[in-house]
Specification:
single chain, mainly alpha
Length: 162
């Protein structure tokens, strides 16, 4: 039997070789429709022959995957209607959680304001030794200490007036 992509001699060789050895002379079989060669050997070959019934049926009727898909594809695309559906209302349950009241503890430390620290030379020198007390002012004014209340007694290394 001769197909478009396989001659009668090659077809007879494939059938004879399979009947004698259980294998095909080549590992690829051409598609009947487009001629694309598809690998078939060992278990894959056995399953395909079982599916087609015989080697001669396989060689004369085999189609590659892309050809089978184009056959199955519908001629005209289906139009899908856009249906308007109401969304089901989701009822949310609100649960309230009660927390125990926060207990405030008195601290033994004295809380000092910036003005208290700036008024004392010793406190200002203690707090500004190596670090700036108002870095936001220093950076916002272009790396300048202009207007800082700690300037007079500050020991910070970056102290500058521009």
């Amino acid at each position: 039997m001769e197909t478009k992509y396989m001659t009668a001699e090659k077809f007879a060789l494939f059938v004879k070789t399979y009947e004698e050895s259980g294998k095909l002379p080549e590992k690829k079989i051409p598609c009947v429709a487009c001629g694309e060669e598809v690998s078939m050997f060992h278990d894959n070959l056995r399953h395909r022959i079982a599916k087609f019934g015989s080697v001669t049926n396989l060689l004369s009727n085999f189609q590659c995957r892309s050809c089978r898909k184009t056959e199955k594809a519908p001629a005209t695309p289906k139009k899908v209607k856009a249906s308007k559906s109401k969304k089901p209302e989701v009822k949310e349950e609100i649960t309230t959680v009660s927390f125990s009241p926060v207990k405030l503890i008195q601290s033994e430390r004295n809380v000092m304001s910036f003005q208290d620290i700036a008024a004392s030379k010793e406190l200002t020198q203690e707090f500004t030794n190596g670090s700036c007390m108002q870095p936001h002012m220093f950076l916002n004014q272009g790396r300048s200490c202009k207007g800082c209340i700690f300037f007079d007694n500050c020991l910070c290394n970056c102290k500058q007036v521009k």
